[in-house]
Amino acid sequence: MISRRALLQSAALAAAVPLAQRAAAAPLSRPVQDPNAQTRLIAGPAQDGVVQAGLEMVLAPGWKTYWRYPGDSGVPPRFDWSGSKNVADVTVLWPAPHVFPDGSGGSSIGYKGRVLLPLVVRLKNPADPAELDLALDFAVCQSLCVPADARLSVPLPGTEAEAPALTEARAEVPVATPFGAGSGPAVLKVERDAGTTPPRLIITARASAEAVLLVEGPDDTWALPIPERQPAAGETVRFTLPLLGVPSDARLPGNKLTLTLVDGAKAIETTTAIPGA
């Protein structure tokens, strides 16, 4: 019987070879091998004191890890950059995630196989050497969740030319899109129905019948469910979202929500406020 570690190493090797080819000579951190995941940092080019970098995670077959909001269950990754040198701040970008059954009747949000999280690293002094250091805490799950951690570091900046793998990863990040903008997927309307208990939001989007909508509250004290997709009507789809998982002291109207609409290979992100009834 092939061991789980052998399967993981095989999957990691298959993912790493194309990445190495696409990333050319982009510096890579030493990979950290967990029984169910492999992680490493990738350093890209710098421009005007900002370095493009990435965090790659390769998961064992059948295992998943989580998006910034994990859904009904799961643990989002936690990033500690405090060990970095000459780094002012790091912004993590999130490729469009997938929704999976969580095994308990709910749904979780995250990634399987391989994911590359783009990182935008702002240097304190662009003329001085820099190093990106990450203490990462995350979870990988199959039928049960297992905690994992990694300590990674890579010198900055990387190559002068952009690494194609980082360009591809950034292209998978949902595009900030105002209401109704463009001709592709878009959020068209958000209404609040106070005639139900609990009250609910009705969200109309321009999207296909297979589109998925994810909604996040203003902070991690909110735990909103995944909106339920209604049958499509032409080029529009309606989603209903009961306002469950809201802090008891939160006043609904005016609170900011982040809506991520994933429609096949396209994904957009729209910020809105909860309307009055």
Provide a quick synopsis of the model.
The chain is mainly β and 277 residues long. It has helices spanning 4-22, 164-171; strands spanning 32-34, 37-47, 50-59, 64-71, 78-80, 87-92, 98-101, 107-112, 114-123, 130-141, 145-156, 175-176, 186-193, 200-206, 212-216, 228-229, 236-242, 256-263, 266-273. Strands 1-2-3-9-6 form a five-stranded antiparallel β-sheet. It has a four-stranded mixed β-sheet with strand order 12-19-18-15, with no helix packed on it.
Sum up the structure in keywords.
single chain, 277 residues, mainly beta, 5-stranded antiparallel sheet, 4-stranded mixed sheet, 10% helix
Description of the structure:
With 277 residues, this protein is mostly beta strands. The chain contains 2 helices and 19 strands. The protein has helices spanning 4-22, 164-171, and strands at 32-34, 37-47, 50-59, 64-71, 78-80, 87-92, 98-101, 107-112, 114-123, 130-141, 145-156, 175-176, 186-193, 200-206, 212-216, 228-229, 236-242, 256-263, 266-273. A 5-stranded antiparallel beta sheet has the order 1-2-3-9-6. Strands 12-19-18-15 form a 4-stranded mixed beta sheet, with no helix packed on it. The protein has a 4-stranded antiparallel beta sheet with strand order 13-14-17-16, with no helix packed on it. The model is unreliable at 1-25 (pLDDT under 50).
